[in-house]
Specification:
With 86 residues, the protein is mainly α. Helices cover 57% and strands 0% of the residues. Helix 1 packs across helix 3. It starts with 18 loop residues before the first helix and ends in a 5-residue tail after the last helix.
Length: 86
């Protein structure tokens, strides 16, 4: 009869992530990137002096955001026009 002596702690092999774990991780990454983009857009709307006071370079902030319709808040036009949806 052969005997074995295990000196370390035995751990099961990690199970590979299933489909739902992959979808959940992808969704969390999407939300993180969206919040980061929203923060950059908010900062880019500040004045250059304020951005410098924060400790960032105003030109690099505006380059990171870029120009386009994605930066605009769609409800901003309704609020400025004075019309309100009921």
């Amino acid at each position: 009869m052969t005997t074995f002596q295990l000196d370390g702690v035995y751990r099961d092999a990690p199970t590979p992530p299933d489909f739902l774990d992959a979808v959940r991780a992808g969704w969390q990454e999407f939300l993180r990137l969206r919040r980061e983009r929203q923060t950059m857009v908010t900062i880019s709307r500040l004045g250059p002096r304020v951005i410098r006071d924060i400790g960032l370079d105003p030109e690099r902030v505006r380059q990171a955001v870029g120009d386009g319709w994605d930066d605009l808040d769609p409800m901003r036009f309704l609020l400025r026009s004075g019309r309100r949806e009921r």
